[in-house]
Design a protein that fits this description.
Layout (H helix, E strand, L loop, with lengths): L14 E6 L1 E8 L5 H11 L5 E5 L2 E3 L4 E2 L1 E3 L7 E3 L9 E13 L2 E11 L5 E6 L10 E8 L2 E8 L4 E8 L7 E6 L5 H12 L4 E10 L15 E6 L1 E2 L4 E5 L5 E4 L8 E11 L1
Parallel strand pairs: 8-12
Antiparallel strand pairs: 1-14, 2-11, 3-8, 3-11, 4-8, 5-10, 6-7, 8-9, 9-10, 12-13, 14-20, 15-16, 15-17, 15-20, 16-18, 18-19
């Protein structure tokens, strides 16, 4: 398995789990707001500070995004591109969002795949304060009662990243999850189910990055860093979409033992 050397010391905890009682919600999102304001505002109106969400078939405009980039110095193992600012509206096939807080303010981590006005497909990391809903939309959301995600400094990667935090009931049907760099994505999720004592789980939402992307029986990406989003899937049969530093997209079932996390991976596990 390919790995990427990180600038800082490896965290002792490689797989963070915060289990508790999970709830599924439907959020109504008004047009004209940023994705950050629309998603976090709707979730907080329901009494929750963080979780995950998935949107499908929504119109965005304007849209601002970045894709992975190669590192230019030793401070980071990989970085982000300059901001891309396409003209006009786009239709998002799927947006995966992690919702929580950064420096005490509502914040979202967004990965998406969309089609532009010319019919071309793109994917990347949406900028939550600069991307607006062009039409009303709905989001499916999942929360763990008493838990959320909070952005914290991460010494291993030298980035500030979402961490599961809170005091939920330790037993329940769901868990917030975060995987550290250089851990195999599929193996870590199976280990999470085993630690929780679950026979299986669905992964709701799900955003992060991998060192390349290797899929079973299909083409992958050999880049040192790819941004990924998860199609709603069972842990035993996951489907990922990945984009690299040249904007190339690949999708499929990840090859077990061949997909190391690059910077982070976060999501919501729901017991089957």
């Amino acid at each position: 398995m390919r790995r990427l050397r990180q600038p800082g010391p490896a965290a002792a905890e490689r797989l963070t789990l915060l289990p508790g009682r999970g709830l599924g919600l439907t959020l109504a999102l008004p047009a004209g707001l940023t994705l950050n304001a629309a998603l976090t505002g709707a979730l907080r109106a329901r009494g929750h500070r963080g979780g995950v969400a998935v949107l499908r078939g929504v119109r965005l405009g304007p849209l601002r995004y970045v894709i992975p980039a190669l590192a230019t110095d030793a401070r980071h193992a990989a970085y982000y591109s300059a901001t891309h600012a396409p003209e006009g509206e786009v239709v998002a096939e799927q947006i995966n969002a992690t919702l929580g807080e950064r420096e005490g303010e509502p914040f979202t981590h967004l990965h998406a795949v969309w089609t532009d006005a010319g019919g071309r497909r793109h994917a990347g990391h949406l900028l939550p304060h600069d991307t607006l809903l062009a039409a009303p939309a709905e989001a499916s959301a999942w929360v763990v009662e008493g838990a959320s995600f909070t952005v914290r400094a991460d010494a291993e990667t030298n980035f500030s990243l979402f961490q599961p935090e809170g005091n939920p009931d330790a037993s329940g049907n769901a868990a917030l999850v975060k995987i550290q760099p250089n851990e195999d994505f599929s193996t870590a999720l199976r280990a999470a189910c085993a630690r929780l004592g679950w026979a299986g789980a669905r992964l709701r939402g799900g955003v992060g990055s991998l060192v390349g992307a290797r899929f079973r029986g299909g083409p992958g990406l050999d880049a040192p860093a790819t941004e990924v989003l998860v199609r709603d899937s069972e842990v035993a049969e996951l489907r990922l979409l990945a984009v690299d530093h040249q904007g190339r997209i690949a999708e499929g079932l990840p090859e077990p033992g061949e997909n190391a996390v690059c910077m982070t991976f976060e999501g919501y596990l729901e017991r089957i």
